[in-house]
Amino acid sequence: MHRELITFEVSGQLFGLDIMAIREIRAWSPVTRLPNVPAYVAGVVNLRGAVLPVIDLAARLGWETTQATQRHAIIVAQLGGQAFGLIVESVSDIVTISGDALQQPTAIAGDAIASFLEGLAAVEEQMVMVLDLTKLGDVESQREAA
């Protein structure tokens, strides 16, 4: 069985998400900050009249907060009926991987990012970290932001 992934960069690293979880890719637009939300929730944006919570993916993965510019993008994903945006540096490509190409990440002591991954896949000469949306988002915090 083959899977299609959208690949994108965050903090100079290549990530992938299953294409079926993605609703759209938007150009960067400033977010409205909210009080009393987790630090990785950058804020909200207006998505055709709906309030869309936006997650700073770098911050969620435990890296430095993104200083977003016009070159950044927002990937709009859907999980359990809840739409949310992910701030990424750039969107790279759509790639197809075979089901057996996905390998489990090795647990390196102190590497919290492995807990957010579905697995790793070799695409051409690069490793793609495939994110697991269910592990990424605290859906309740996102609902509070929305």
Could you please describe the fold and organization of this structure?
By secondary structure, the protein is mainly beta. It has one domain (2-145): CheA-289, Domain 4 (OB fold (Dihydrolipoamide Acetyltransferase, E2P), Beta Barrel). The protein is 10% helix and 49% strand. The protein contains 3 helices and 10 strands. The chain has helices spanning 57-60, 133-136, 139-145, and strands at 2-10, 13-18, 22-27, 41-47, 50-56, 73-79, 82-88, 90-98, 117-123, 126-131. Strands 8-1-2-10-9 form a 5-stranded mixed β-sheet. A 5-stranded mixed β-sheet has the order 3-6-7-5-4. A hairpin with a 2-residue loop joins strand 1 (2-10) and strand 2 (13-18). It is globular, with a radius of gyration of 15 Å. Residues 139-146 have low confidence and may be disordered.
CATH architecture: Beta Barrel
What is the CATH domain class? Mainly Beta
Considering DSSP H and I runs of 4 or more, what fraction of the residues is helical? 10-25%
User: What general form does the structure show?
Assistant: globular
Termini separation (Å)? 36 Å
The overall strand count is 10
**Biggest sheet: strands side by side, in what order?**
8-1-2-10-9
Q: How large a portion of the residues is in β-strands, by DSSP E?
A: over 45%
Q: Catalogue the unreliable spans.
A: 139-146
The profile of the biggest β sheet is:
5 strands, mixed
Q: Tally the helices: what do you get?
A: 3
Order of helices and strands: EEEEEHEEEEEHH
CATH superfamily: CheA-289, Domain 4
Structural class: mainly beta
How many individual domains? 1
Radius of gyration, in angstroms, nearest whole number = 15 Å
Mean pLDDT: 87
What assembly state would you assign to the polypeptide chains in this entry? Answer: single chain
